[in-house]
Amino acid sequence: MHCLAATLAVISPSLSFSSLTPSMAAAFRWVLQLHRNVPKAARFYSEGLGFSVDVCTLRWAELQSGPLKLALMHSESNIAMQNGYSSMLSFTVTDIQSTVTKLVTLGAELDGPIKYEIHGKVAAMRCIDGHMLGLYEPA
């Protein structure tokens, strides 16, 4: 923050960080994932993690979980996985074992075992089209 303020002072001495924040702050819109089968991916998040589906077509879907909006867009190529690019979404759940079981029935795979840490249980899952999910159940 100090570096930004110093840079602003050089660019325009009349501007300060606090004067820019309210009017120029970006509003988070959504996280986007590419999928070969958008309706199947929407079902995965809806049935597996309880997202509500706002819009779902063959090429585009918008899902909601609290303040988070997840957008799913159709892509024939597997470019995200070929280049090693993927989103990592992390979720707090009340029962990690039942969530893992539900997600596996919908096509996900555990990426290693469920780990039992002092702060709670954690698991990594690879969902359809290779996207990674983190699950956390607090102790």
Automatic annotation (TrEMBL):
Name of this protein: Glyoxalase/fosfomycin resistance/dioxygenase domain-containing protein
Entry keywords, A to Z: Signal
SUPFAM superfamilies registered for this protein in UniProt: Glyoxalase/Bleomycin resistance protein/Dihydroxybiphenyl dioxygenase
Keyword Signal in annotation: yes
Signal peptide per UniProt: 1-16
Highest taxon above the source species: Eukaryota
Glyoxalase/fosfomycin resistance/dioxygenase domain residues: 32-123
